[in-house]
């Protein structure tokens, strides 16, 4: 039986797809060419995981906005990314959560979509 081995893409509605794609390119480094609405990620590191989960319809985890989804982005340095977003005027949650498998922070894009940032633990990291 064939099985899903990872997330192939994330797709969501936007009032201005090109402007929002440009925002993600500028503030998060998402690989989208100027003027385009899509980009691709590639990784040779087999140990990198992509999580997929369902949540109850009334979960507060996605924030107070109406969005039916939330994207988790892996980052190398969570603190630096959160500081960069704050400096750009992006709404960033004050809290950061720390677990054995990594650290998490949250922010919101210009259209009210809350997103999660994840700095995974590296092997041997306490």
TrEMBL record:
Coiled coil: none annotated. It comes from the Bacteria. Residues 6-120 form the VOC domain. InterPro entries: Anthracycline_SecMetBiosynth, Glyas_Bleomycin-R_OHBP_Dase, Glyoxalase_6, VOC_core. PROSITE patterns: VOC. Pfam families: Glyoxalase_6. PANTHER family: GLYOXALASE (PTHR33993:SF5), GLYOXALASE-RELATED (PTHR33993). This is Glyoxalase-like domain protein. It comes from Aquisphaera giovannonii.
């Amino acid at each position: 039986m064939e099985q899903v081995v990872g997330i192939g893409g994330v797709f969501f509605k936007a009032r201005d797809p090109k402007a929002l794609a440009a925002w993600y390119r500028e503030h998060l480094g998402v690989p989208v060419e100027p003027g385009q609405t899509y980009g691709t990620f590639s990784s040779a590191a087999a140990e990198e995981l992509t999580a997929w989960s369902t949540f109850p319809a009334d979960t507060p985890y996605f924030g107070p906005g109406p969005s039916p989804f939330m994207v988790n982005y892996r980052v190398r340095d969570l603190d630096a990314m959160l500081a960069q977003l704050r400096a750009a005027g992006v709404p960033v949650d004050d809290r950061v959560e720390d677990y054995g498998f990594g650290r998490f922070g949250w922010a919101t894009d210009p259209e009210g979509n809350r997103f999660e940032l994840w700095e995974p633990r590296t092997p041997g990291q306490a």
